[in-house]
Amino acid sequence: MTDSDKLPLAVFDLDNTLADTAHRQRFLERSPRDWDGFFAAAPEDPPIPEGIALVLKSAEECEIVYLTGRPERCRRDTLAWLAAQGLPEGRVHMRRNDDRRPARRTKLEILKRLARTREIRILVDDDELVCEDARRAGFTVVRASWTAPSATLEVAQEREGRT
Predict the structure, then answer these.
(1) How far, in Å, CA of 52 to CA of 101, rounded?
(2) Mean pLDDT computed over 157-162
(3) What is the number of alpha carbons within 13 Å of residue 119 lying toward its C-beta?
(4) 120-125 and 63-71 as β-strands: parallel, antiparallel, unpaired?
(5) At what angle do helices 103-115 and 128-136 cross, to 10 degrees?
């Protein structure tokens, strides 16, 4: 076991926690929703200063883990975006391409799995339902409320299982 294996984990969501998705919401406001366009625009997401600062501060005492509802097919773009922001390297947990379960189910499942072997110091996420379920399960949660809530994105996360 290395020293880094002993550090507690700080788990961060991406969309509307670290990455501002407002510029790509338009792809979800049409019918049918343009998921390919929505995810293709992700590399252009501006960083959210509050979220970025919290990751950097958390990295002083914790190993950083990224937990996103983005599908696995977005991994390359996601890793490039994280590196471009100067964020700490860390494991990135993504949704399987065919997984359409609500974000609160997929994320809580991963959190519980991580918690079997490591202390989770904090979860930071913008999704109110993910935060509520994680709190109920005993996790320490910071709700990322630094971006305007998006009803469109909430539907995508909870009803369509897309992000």
Answers:
(1) 28
(2) 52
(3) 7
(4) unpaired
(5) 40
